[in-house]
Nucleoside triphosphate pyrophosphohydrolase
Amino acid sequence: MRDDSDTLIHDPNGGMPRLLAIMRRLRDPDTGCPWDIEQTFSTIAPYTIEEAYEVADAIEREAWDELKGELGDLLLQVVYHAEIGAERGLFDFPSIADAISDKMVARHPHVFGAESREKSAAEQTRDWETIKAAERAERARSGVLDDVALNLPALMRAEKLQKRAARVGFDWPGVDEVLAKITEEARELAEARTHLTAQKVAEEMGDLLFVMANLARHLQVDPEEALRSANRKFTRRFAYIEAQLARSDRHPEDSDLAEMDALWDRAKAEGL
């Protein structure tokens, strides 16, 4: 029996039952919050994505004092979707927990079943993909790319699409062929910008980015992490430029490219 009492809602040690009760109260059509009542799966989804990135950001910054709060924000998103699902008779929080528990047990027969644990990480990954393929078949989603999520960041989705295709043999033989394709796509982009429409230029740019993701995969580099690292490096070095200009009470807009480029090289030389 569900407990939505004020006693539970205000219990600082109420744990998961408390959070579920709070969400039910927020969504109550008579006494809940008007904003929360209006929300749907679609309107909440962007917040779910944002909260997942904020968890990743806290981990990347090693902001361990913030991580608990960020994980709580992400958990709230799951609870939100669970409550909407319960209202529609689709699923509820316990059924969500049961579903993921069933999946983890089924996908780890070497831990929870009779299979041997004497497997390499590569062998376990292969077995995981075999099980996932069987699950896709059961859901009548037999296409190789069918369950690569549409709303993943584009670079991450490109890598996943390519990995999935590679498993069935649709892949470049090696890095040299990918580099040749990058040269080809870069040439096509250069040609497109001189005489084709903006839409065609954007298409060619997408092709180049897609093959760059393929190169990262062949080099066993995580393209998302590589680009995040490049972003961090750019931020550090540009902050150095700003700091150096501030010594003479100036801002970047008071400088010029030659000076800022020289300061960039100094930042680079100093290991930033």
